[in-house]
Amino acid sequence: MSLIERLRKSTVQVTDGRGHGAGVAWDADGAIVTNAHVIRGRSLRVIGADGQSAPARIVKHDSERDLALLETELRVPPASIGDSSALRPGEIVFAVGNPRGHAGAVTMGTIHAIGPLQLGARTNWIQADVHLAPGNSGGLLANAAGELIGINTMVMNGLGLAISSNEVRRFINGEVERVRLGVEMIPSREGLVVVGIEHASLAERAHVLIGDVLRCTAGELRDLLAGIQQNGSADIPILRGGKAKTLRVHLGTEARAA
Amino acid sequence: VGLHPVSLPDGRGGLVILSIEPEGPAAKAGLFVGDVLVAIGGEPVSDTDDVQAHLGADRVGKPVEAAIVRGGAALNVTVVPGERA
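^ inputs. structure came back:
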């Protein structure tokens, strides 16, 4: 069987009674991975490449990661799961999905970049110039060896964005998501200037203000935030109104600049 | 100065200062990186065009009141626009 045929057979249609998306067989026991935004309705069904279908139920759902794990009686040949950390820009990739209802449609492109879309953002998107359309969401992105390296999730600035297979693996294994501050920042000579704060984010709870200057690099900030899980809090050095302060950030509790 | 448009929690627009030229008018007025400029001469500013409108050649050397938000608090400073290098 050709590489592309194998990929198509591992891809399913996911219907929720309101719309169609795609999904991928993660194992041979009926585990299907898709995007959380694909399964907004209640009546879930999975349709295989051979046209057979079966109901599905939600095992796990994470709307922030935009991932969902389904379980179905339908037996679908599982995709071979690759290591997305080995991906490099320029690699050839294939996307399979059901764009505009065309089941099993295939598109090819190259990896454009791997990483966040903006400084300070958390998600390491696999960005590829594959042609995606509504119905590709939840479908697979595979490398030239036919290994699944991402789940196609959205289109931005003409590029397809996929959640990496390693992130999907962490989601399935129940690994805790990295802590994120929830700010938009622009680098300056003084540090990272906060220019946007997400609603209900850790930053908002910690009273981060527009214009605060975080006295660290994006990498140092990631490390500081990672420390929250071990230490319960993190101290972020900031400049506010030209004065040096320390912002103590707690998970789930309020913090103030001291 | 380098400026970037922002939205403040109270819904107002403004421009956050990203860089300040040493010895320039903003530095002389005591402005800091991170200050959010919300009005010049009593008129709201939300993009760089609004600011440029107040910095024409005819304004050079004439003090103008700038409303800023610093660390969440409102304050006014007087800036004397300088000549572009």
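The longest helix of chain B spans residues 48-52. Helices of chain B lie at 25-28, 48-52.
thumbs up if we can close this ticket
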